[in-house]
């Protein structure tokens, strides 16, 4: 692109980051049941799902904040060294994803999962409600960084900026706080180290500046 104009150019990349403190969360749990009959496995899982959802809504959570997956039902086999596979029963699995608008209630909802018979917590993802404002701040920081670099470089080479030739926006990225480990609900222990966590929201922009001849 710089070859299309009759003046020298200077290319810079601006980076911007802002740190945000999470004020909401999203967690997913799994309910699994192994039974000799498919119908029994399904019934066992459905019962836990219904109990957990009822507990959440009774505690004041909006139903739209709870998303349950379709049932996954699969036969389970034993594989002897010699001979054909032997059907050993059926496994039913369903996942539930819960959006927590008030972070201080996260432990309460996880306790409800335990009491309802949920088998495990797959992950806990901490977020911020008004993510847009942080994205905008990161973007402005990236723009300022690109300008500052260009000005310093131009000055260092005894030149001056003469406007912008092109801008390429590289979009933003969010590094959420993930409590990634799977937590077995039988242990009655859920990681509570999220309270002082922070998340990083970054942005990037590539700019080509024109230089005075």
From TrEMBL:
Superkingdom assignment: Bacteria
Listed Pfam families: SIMPL (PF04402)
Protein name: Oxidative stress defense protein
């Amino acid at each position: 692109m710089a070859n299309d104009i009759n003046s020298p150019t200077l290319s810079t990349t601006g980076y911007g980051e802002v740190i945000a403190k999470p004020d909401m969360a999203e967690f997913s749990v799994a309910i699994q049941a192994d039974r000799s009959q498919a119908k029994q496995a399904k019934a066992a899982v459905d019962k836990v799902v219904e109990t957990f959802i009822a507990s959440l809504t009774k505690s004041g959570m909006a139903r739209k904040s709870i998303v349950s997956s379709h049932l996954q039902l699969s036969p389970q086999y034993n594989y002897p060294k010699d001979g054909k596979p032997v059907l050993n029963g059926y496994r039913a699995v369903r996942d539930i994803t819960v959006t927590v608008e008030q972070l201080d209630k996260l432990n309460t909802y996880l306790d409800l999962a335990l009491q309802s018979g949920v088998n495990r917590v797959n992950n806990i993802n901490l977020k911020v409600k008004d993510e847009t404002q942080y994205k905008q701040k990161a973007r402005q920081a990236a723009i300022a960084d690109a300008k500052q670099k260009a000005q310093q470089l131009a000055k260092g080479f005894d030149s001056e900026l003469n406007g912008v030739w092109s801008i390429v926006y590289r979009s933003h990225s969010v590094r959420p706080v993930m409590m990634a480990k799977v937590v077995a609900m039988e242990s009655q222990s859920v990681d509570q180290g999220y309270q002082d966590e922070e998340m990083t929201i970054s942005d990037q922009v590539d700019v080509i500046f024109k230089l005075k001849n």
